[in-house]
């Protein structure tokens, strides 16, 4: 299947297959077979968040979630940066999402940028970050909201909020610690230091580092490796992992038994067992 692309600035998705046409602002949505690539598209602002991007972000993940053909999503940035997170120019101006007093700002965060971690927490399919360049502040947090992270050589990552007199207001105190562990996350947040891609891999902040030229190819290869597996089993495995994190053993085992009872009664399970017995590659249909 060829790639279906919906592009720059104000882009319109006219598929009409899974809902009404969708408009994307500061974001690109590209579908190629079973893989969707979502690209943050404000390179002139280092892919910092905008109000339009937040709206588009939710719509893009809604579209990928309901499309039965989509088995994995890649998230990356346009140009040389993955994401700088917050728009520093608008911070200085105290405009847009950075306007208002303490109470108003709290409401803006809850109704604004917090839509990103809440939406990704509900996203059922595998999500891979292709970190093509700097992932700074909320940009790092966004990468940590993904399931897997692959970085290009030369990429730098950092939780730099304290350098701006801020805290990780988008949920970074939660997501970064879940990736690298509490003590290391605390050190990164309190110092605000940047780490290169090699150190990021060493401390578990990213899963792998590849050349910049091979980044999207390598991430797509990993996405396709995941997409070859039984779709429902993949989705419920992801759900079981995230949900079990906050459960005790008994509750986690009850959840595992429930999900296993579901997938063990699917045609894909029958196909997987038959293919193993017949020593051939399975053909999962979801």
What's the layout of helices and strands?
Blueprint: E1 3-6, E2 10-13, E3 22-25, E4 27-32, E5 35-40, H1 51-66, E6 72-77, H2 88-93, H3 102-111, H4 115-122, E7 127-131, E8 135-136, H5 138-144, E9 148-152, E10 156-158, H6 172-180, H7 182-191, E11 194-196, H8 197-202, E12 208-210, H9 215-227, H10 231-244, H11 249-263, H12 267-277
Helix pairs in contact: 1-4, 5-6, 6-7, 10-11
Based on secondary structure, the structural category is alpha/beta
Mean pLDDT: 90
Number of separate domains: 2
- The number of distinct helices, counting runs of at least 4 residues, comes to 12
Unreliable segments of 5+ consecutive residues: 1-16
Q: What is the CATH topology descriptor of the largest domain?
A: 2-enoyl-CoA Hydratase, Chain A, domain 1
Major sheet: arrangement of strands? 1-4-5-6-7-9-12
CATH superfamily of the largest domain: 2-enoyl-CoA Hydratase, Chain A, domain 1
* Beta-strand content estimate: 15-25%
Distance between the termini: 18 Å
Q: What radius of gyration results from the CA coordinates?
A: 20 Å
């Amino acid at each position: 299947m060829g790639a279906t692309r919906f592009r720059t600035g104000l882009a319109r998705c006219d598929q009409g297959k899974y809902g009404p046409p969708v408009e994307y602002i500061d974001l690109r949505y590209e579908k190629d077979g079973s893989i969707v690539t979502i690209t943050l598209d404000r390179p002139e602002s280092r892919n910092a968040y905008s109000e339009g991007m937040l709206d588009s972000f939710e719509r893009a993940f809604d579209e990928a979630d309901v499309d039965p053909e989509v088995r994995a999503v890649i998230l990356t940035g346009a140009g040389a940066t993955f994401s700088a997170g917050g728009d520093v120019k608008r911070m200085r101006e105290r405009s847009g999402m950075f306007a208002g007093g303490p109470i108003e700002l709290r409401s803006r965060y809850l109704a604004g940028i917090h839509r990103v971690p809440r939406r990704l927490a509900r996203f059922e399919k595998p999500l891979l970050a292709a970190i093509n360049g700097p992932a700074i502040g909320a940009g790092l947090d966004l990468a940590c909201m993904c399931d897997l992270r692959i970085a290009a050589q030369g990429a730098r990552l950092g939780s730099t909020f304290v350098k701006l007199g801020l805290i990780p207001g988008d949920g970074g105190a939660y997501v970064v610690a879940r990736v690298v562990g509490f003590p290391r996350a605390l050190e990164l947040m309190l110092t605000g230091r940047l780490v290169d891609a090699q150190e990021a891999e060493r401390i578990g902040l990213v899963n792998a580092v590849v050349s910049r030229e091979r980044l999207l190819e390598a991430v797509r290869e990993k996405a396709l490796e995941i997409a070859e597996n039984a779709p429902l089993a993949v989705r419920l495995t992801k759900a079981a992992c995230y949900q079990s994190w906050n459960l005790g053993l008994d509750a986690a085992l009850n959840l595992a038994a429930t999900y296993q009872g579901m997938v063990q009664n699917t045609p894909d399970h029958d196909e997987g067992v038959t293919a193993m017995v017949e020593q051939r590659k399975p053909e999962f249909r979801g």
